[in-house]
Amino acid sequence: MAYSFLHTAHHVGSKLAVYPVESQGSLAHAPRQNRTIFALIIINKAGGLVYNKNFHDGLNQISTNDYLVLAGTFHGVHAITARLNPLKGLPQATKDASAANSRPDPPSGLESLESENFRMQCFNTLTGTKFLLFTDTTQTNGDITMKKIYDLYADYVMKNPFYSLEMPIRCEIFDRKLLSYIREINNR
User: Fold this and answer.
1) pLDDT tens digits, 81-113
2) Phi, psi of 162, deg, nearest 5
3) What does DSSP assign to residue 58?
4) Are 41 and 54 in contact (CB under 8 A)?
5) Is 51 helix (H, G, I), strand (E, B) or coil?
6) DSSP 3-state assignment of 165?
């Protein structure tokens, strides 16, 4: 059974925030789907795949080469979309008056992609590392989930003295903590 969503939009500062709202018609009697996190991919600032993990048994398995292609393709699309509006949200008068004094926020690029089967959210760090989270379309609070995943990454990968920046992540404690957190979400 398909779910339909209406979207409400609110201006928050210079950003447009879109919030899904369940429509009144078919959702009133529809059974709730499990809110599931399917996979996580981490891409370094050069577009290389440094981490991938599936959290759902029912997913089609893709090859390592396909993951590498996915990471590189997303990196390119993200770079292009960040260039589409490099001076976002600043009115012309503000741009002229403060051009010498300050810079606008850096462009963000592609942040979310939704299909009828999944939602992909991207969190781009200040260093250029990208976290791609693939979830069910009914999954809520993706930003909170991403923040927790980033906190785990910062605590167990970046503080690991044996980890080399921009290299594949091979950290057993990060895997354990991440898996524990995702299981907690998927079993709700």
Assistant:
1) 888 865 555 555 555 555 555 555 556 788 888
2) -95, 0
3) T
4) no
5) strand
6) coil
Structure-token pair, residue 154: 């910062």
Q: Where do the CATH 3.30.450.70 domains begin and end in the chain?
A: 34-88+100-186
DSSP assignments along 6-46, one per residue? EEEEEEETTEEEEEEEE-STTTSSSPPPP--EEEEEEE-TT
DSSP 96-157: HHTTTT--PPPP----EEE-SS-EEEEEE-TTS-EEEEEE-TT---HHHHHHHHHHHHIIII
Residue with tokens 């997303």: 74
Q: Which amino acid is at 102?
A: S
Cβ pair 64, 53 in contact under 8 A: no
pTM for the whole thing? 0.70
Q: Does domain 34-88+100-186 have CATH number 3.30.1330.60?
A: no
